[in-house]
Design a protein that fits this description.
There is one protein chain. The protein is of the alpha/beta class. It has 8 helices and 14 strands. It has helices at residues 14-26, 38-47, 68-91, 139-147, 170-180, 214-220, 225-237, 253-261, and strands at residues 2-6, 31-35, 54-56, 62-64, 96-100, 107-119, 122-137, 151-155, 157-159, 165-168, 185-190, 208-210, 242-247, 263-266. The strands form 3 sheets. An 8-stranded mixed sheet has the order 5-8-2-1-11-13-14-12, sandwiched between helices. Helix 2 packs across helix 3 and helix 6 runs antiparallel to helix 7. The two termini are 29 Å apart.
């Protein structure tokens, strides 16, 4: 069982990813696909007169501010992207099933109603946010679908205990799903060849990290890669054996990642899962 996170970066070669996933399905390898829509959501927001707003948290992570209208724009963007991915997999002979994280209580989340953000030297409180942190996964639903040879394609919108729809960071959603399913591994497909020590110089790719290296790497990683490292840390601390940061732009990206052409992050501490408190960004 593998969990694959398909990034929403416009440079990611989604067709190549889907080709490989279809091959895996024919070979009897089970997988769950979680997908992003960052580029598509940005374009839709611009077209609807509500452009995206990105903010930097007090801890230094940059993310989309999700007010109520942005959340609904993301629902529209996710619905379109999810449908096209499912249709593309069916054209390849894969019985895929598209799901929003709200379907069947698949992805449970805690809403972050207020964000502590940094603007220059000031720390501000930004309210009215509809983003969430994953707190639970309906694994019974995913296992049942896989038993029926249906391959889940998941858009990471979550549902709070109060029944509110929230936007969940796709990387952290994929990590939570991989842990819940006790997956063999988690592969992030990105618009880079892996973690770069000196971004954007692709010659500085880091081939392998241990879990102990992650904290230091988050201090110098750039952009969205910091989110992926945080998600990897959460997954590894909760028992996942390994995480790959892979180049989603190239042909056969999954095969390339598994033969060592991305960045592999290994859990090298105790094999007993240690519950980790989910960090707020």
């Amino acid at each position: 069982m593998w969990v694959i996170k398909l990034g929403g970066n416009a440079t990611v070669n989604a067709e190549a990813v889907l080709d490989e996933l279809a091959t895996w399905a024919r070979e009897g390898r089970r997988w769950v696909l979680v997908h992003g829509i960052s580029a598509e959501a940005d374009a839709l927001g611009e077209a609807l007169g509500h452009p995206p707003r990105y903010v930097t948290s007090a801890s230094g992570f940059t993310s989309r501010y999700t007010d109520e209208r942005t959340r609904d724009i993301m629902l529209m963007a996710y619905g379109r992207a999810n449908a096209h991915l499912v249709a593309a997999l069916h054209r390849r002979g894969v019985h895929a099933i598209g799901l929003l994280g709200i379907d069947g209580g698949l992805l449970q989340a805690r809403r972050k109603e207020a964000l502590r953000i940094r603007e220059g030297e000031r720390i501000l409180i930004l309210r009215g946010d509809y983003s969430g942190t994953p707190i639970g996964v309906n694994t019974a639903l995913l296992h049942r679908l896989l038993e029926l040879e249906l391959y889940p394609v998941i858009a990471p919108m979550g549902l709070t205990p109060e029944g509110e729809i929230v936007n969940v960071d796709g990387d952290r959603a994929a990590a939570a799903i991989a842990v819940a399913l006790q997956a063999e591994g988690l592969i992030f497909l990105t618009g880079a060849p892996g973690l770069l020590r000196s971004f954007p110089d692709e010659r500085t790719r880091v081939a392998e990290l241990s879990m102990e290296d992650l904290e230091g790497a988050m201090a110098w990683a750039q952009g969205r890669m910091r989110h992926k490292l945080l998600a990897a840390q959460e997954a590894l601390k909760n028992g996942l054996p390994s995480v790959w940061l892979a180049d989603g732009r190239r042909p056969a990206p999954l095969t390339a990642a598994l033969r060592g052409e991305g960045t592999r992050i290994l859990r090298t501490t105790s094999p007993i899962p240690v519950p980790v408190e989910i960090q707020e960004l």
